[in-house]
Amino acid sequence: MTDDTNGDLKAPSKVRLIEVAQEAGVSRSAVSLALRGHPSIPKRTHARIQDAARRLGYVYNRGAANLRTASTQTVGVVVHDVTNPYFAEIVAAVQDEMTLHGRVILFGNTQECTTRQAEFIETFREHNVDGLILCPAAGTQADMVADIQRSGVPLVLFSRDLPDADVDYVGSANFEGMQSATAHLIGAGHRRIAMVGGNTDTSTGRDRLAGYRAALGDAGIAEDPDLIVEGPATRDFGMRTIRALTTREPELTACVCFNDVLAFGVMLGLRADNKEAGRDFSVVGFDDIAEATLWRPALTSFGFSRQELGRRVAEMLLRRIAEPNSPPKRIILNFELRSRESVRAR
Amino acid sequence: MTDDTNGDLKAPSKVRLIEVAQEAGVSRSAVSLALRGHPSIPKRTHARIQDAARRLGYVYNRGAANLRTASTQTVGVVVHDVTNPYFAEIVAAVQDEMTLHGRVILFGNTQECTTRQAEFIETFREHNVDGLILCPAAGTQADMVADIQRSGVPLVLFSRDLPDADVDYVGSANFEGMQSATAHLIGAGHRRIAMVGGNTDTSTGRDRLAGYRAALGDAGIAEDPDLIVEGPATRDFGMRTIRALTTREPELTACVCFNDVLAFGVMLGLRADNKEAGRDFSVVGFDDIAEATLWRPALTSFGFSRQELGRRVAEMLLRRIAEPNSPPKRIILNFELRSRESVRAR
DNA sequence: GGATTGCGCTTGATCGATTTACTAGATCGA
DNA sequence: TCGATCTAGTAAATCGATCAAGCGCAATCC
């Protein structure tokens, strides 16, 4: 079997419908219909044809089919960073759902570069994708979305909103989520609460900050600009920030963080000063990444299911492909409290 | 231009070569040749044609072209888990390199399921990919590789080796790497060293375990089966394992981990028992993922560049596509020590 | 008994590009 | 001035499937 003295030595994958037809003693069309399970071909013939196809090692040529049919059964997925587990999880979920519907994914990773993003979209259009799923790179203009829509390619955006675009979108309730997170601390008796990290360059950052402010306002707590520290979402920044803050603000008893990574930094920073989250200070994270459970103390966080988001995105695109002219829809997933050990009532 | 009071109102993407030809006053062939920069079309005509194409918003239809040409300019990439940053980084690197060569990626995530894997490969073949890149799911048989090869589709495997397959492969020196990692601890004065995680289902697991054993042997340290704990590569498993081990084995002063994720779990587990890596216990990770630097204490690990691996995989596939009959090649990348804070000499 | 319908297929056109073979006219060398 | 070569294209065949239209025969209907 591994030696190729002779064997059938089937010519590598050059079997076409017509060869199968000859083998089965029918016409091309009969084979085409049979293989796609058309009812006009009776069972016996169908079996005979399928047998012939198997014998010859026939491989369906979708490229050829696509030339006649409308759909290519492909969709483009463009994200800005698969290396980030948040997006990897979403891509995986989209992939799952699309596979379930027999579609294949053309994948593009833009690395936050709008030029690359435009190239992927262009190439995917040349490949005739049935639709596009996109988390726009920072700096994406709303009119590029309009361009895609005008060209007639179904499009769904996720996670990052584009203010002026009238388009299908699946995202999360950043404002309400951060509002709840802050309210959670207020409910636990805290009054001086810092907001660590995030910035106003993206809708995500703006919305979360606004949620924090709203919660303070609701509770009648005056906002103190000194307690809002914008910055990168890194462990290191969280660590430095909390040490500076607690030194400067002895009354501070809690903080909300733009995301979990910052919260881990905060917890490390506290420990460096011999304080412990959940005992001497309360910390709430955001996004509920996998690590949140495993940390000691386990991090209280607000999160939503990335898997659900991915699934929803896929479903939404399939719907738009089916009904290209239905009005744009928005789905916003809610954050839920995952209460753990890093918060203490006072 | 942005307002569509009337304007050209271009029929969504139904512009074909022939329309461009009419617009430019030449034949279909001339347009085809011009757009691909064929020298027989002079500059002036070329410009006129390109102008016409732009005016009409022509989109190249690769599907149609593929029917005539050999190549589809697509390659399939199948991994078992994008959610794992290790693979995400490789996928991103492969993507980059392929984009550089004008190729697009069909992407499949198998979730370690050989059935899904087979489906992806089948579908990708129907889509006429020029080649396949695969990190085989656990339990993949060597003859499925042989099947793909027989069918004439260029194939490159990475990261996980398939013992009996005679195929292009890019991987890492797992044996030597783990041997160095263990030797590193021995060099720091440790004698009782555990091996946490990994299993013998994959070549990776077997090789790393063998490397650990070899290093012990080289140093004349007797192997203790109680110190070898196989298991899944999760934070949680690392955490539980180290707690059990340190309770049971008071003499234990260090461990090597199958990968960094396990090492993080080990560090968390130590902390849960009021021990600290780098002070009370020494931990060496494996793979050197991005997080290793960010952790406190920063994790000492052995790694190689995933970007390089991805690039090499892509290059190797492109080479095989160009020379389908060249003998299979293997590239093995070496692990390098990234010494940080989680190891302490004694 | 003639018309209609249904079954199980086939024929031939077609999708939108590429490619081979060819040609009208210009240029050139002898 | 004649044949050869070059230039700038064109016409037609082709890739491998799909699909609309149709065909021969038998069964059914009125």
Describe this entry's structure for a reader.
The structure is a homodimer of 346-residue chains. Chain A has 346 residues and is of the alpha/beta class. The radius of gyration of chain A is 27 Å and the shape is elongated. In chain A, strands 2-1-3-4-5-11 form a 6-stranded parallel beta sheet, with helices on both faces. Helix content of chain A is 44%, strand content 15%. In chain A, α5 (85-100) crosses α13. Mean pLDDT of chain A is 92; it is low at 1-11. The first copy, chain A, has 13 helices and 12 strands. In chain A, α5 (85-100) links the parallel β1 and β2. The first copy, chain A, folds into 3 domains: 17-60, no CATH class; 74-172 and 306-335, Response regulator (Rossmann fold, 3-Layer(aba) Sandwich); 174-304, Rossmann fold (3-Layer(aba) Sandwich), CATH 3.40.50.2300. At the A-B interface, α4, α5, β2, α6 and α7 of A face α4, α5, β2, α6 and α10 of B. β2 (104-109) of chain A pairs antiparallel with β2 (104-109) of chain B. Chain A binds a DNA duplex (30 and 30 nucleotides) through residues 16-18, 26-30, 32-33, 36, 40-42, 45, 60-69.
